[in-house]
Amino acid sequence: PTRDRASCCLFYTLRPEDTCVTCPRTCDADRVRKLAAAS
Fold first, then answer.
1. Phi-psi category of 27—alpha, beta or left, where left has phi over 0 and alpha has psi -120 to 50?
2. CA-to-CA distance for 37 and 14, rounded, in angstroms?
3. Which of 3, 6, 12, 29 is in Cβ range 3.0-4.6 Å of 20 for a Cys bridge?
4. SS3 call for 19
5. DSSP of 1-39, one letter per residue?
6. Are 1 and 18 in contact (CB under 8 A)?
7. How many domains, in total, are found in the chain?
8. pLDDT score recorded for residue 21
């Protein structure tokens, strides 16, 4: 489930570990880790 950018970055400020994978504020290392964990 992909969040839109507004809600995603809102989540980022509250729970950085709960950003959506496509969030521009999610660094590449975190994105890779999240994708690996999801698959």
1. beta
2. 21
3. 3
4. coil
5. -PPPHHHHHHHHHH-GGG--TT-TTS-HHHHHHHHHHH-
6. no
7. 1
8. 60
| Half-sphere exposure (Cβ direction) of 34: Cα atoms closer than 13 Å | 16
pLDDT of the residue at 30: 74
Domain with 27 in it: 5-38
* pLDDT tens track for 1-39: 555 655 555 555 566 566 566 666 556 777 678 778 887
Res 34: pLDDT: 76
